[in-house]
Amino acid sequence: MKKLVTLVTLAFATSLSSTHLFAAEKLRVYAASSMTNAVNLLVEEFEKNHSVDVIPVYASTSSLVRQIERGAPADIFISANDKWMTYLVDRQLVYSDNVTNLCENELVLISPKEVPVSLNLSKGEQWAKLLTNERLAVGNTMSVPAGIYAKEALEALGVWDDVKARLAPSNNVRMALALVERSEAKLGIVYKTDALLSKEVNLVSTFPSDLHTPIRYPVAKLSDKVVAEEFYIFLRSKNAKNTLNSFGFEVR
User: Fold this and answer.
1) Are 62 and 88 in contact (CB under 8 A)?
2) Is 128 annotated as belonging to a binding site?
3) Given a cut of 50, is residue 70 above it in pLDDT?
4) According to the annotation, is 74 in a ligand binding site?
5) pLDDT digit string (tens) for 123-167?
6) What's the distance, CA 192 to chain centroid?
7) Is 146 labeled as ligand-binding?
8) What is the mean pLDDT of residues 212-241?
9) Which terminal Cβ of the chain has fewer Cβ within 10 Å, N or C?
10) 109 three-class SS
11) Which residues contact 178 (CB under 8 A, 6 or more apart)?
């Protein structure tokens, strides 16, 4: 009987040890949808050297901010623009000391692969002609960073009035890309990094950076977890910078 109790106790202890071993700590990374491919690879690289289960959550920056406002358990947040990060800082949901700039991007005009397009960005009549009975895919110009940047650029070029009635707004930049890939929109405005990932679109033109607010991706650490600090530091490492550069992001 004593031997049986010892064996049961040992088995129970072993079970607890195994459960602890395999119950890896979770790290939730909320990131703008345009960061999907790059962050997936960064997560893979980080997990190789850390006993942690990284759970990435992708959506438009505005959607992620609303989730964080409502108490979503984010440990790391990567925004597609400064304003939304400032929004969280102003509401004391993020400490400014825990925010740094991760990388930058460019804004480009794309068309479906089988529809080559030539366009002078500053010629409103050319935009109007190309978009006759057609659509321009963009992120929502009121809330999605890529859409906000697009509107700024089009206004600076003086062609906003020529295109605003032909917009096909979407909830995030990847949806805008998909509309052009499926030829449901003749033109689209997305990030350079999105255009580089797709084999189904042509890169028509790059918008000069002085036409819109700088496209920066600030990253914030939202929790006090040790692993959150480790991931936050990892994102600024040489290996992480090389990964981001490989996807077309600019890391200074």
Assistant:
1) no
2) no
3) yes
4) no
5) 999 999 999 999 999 999 999 999 999 999 999 999 999 999 999
6) 12
7) yes
8) 97
9) N
10) strand
11) none
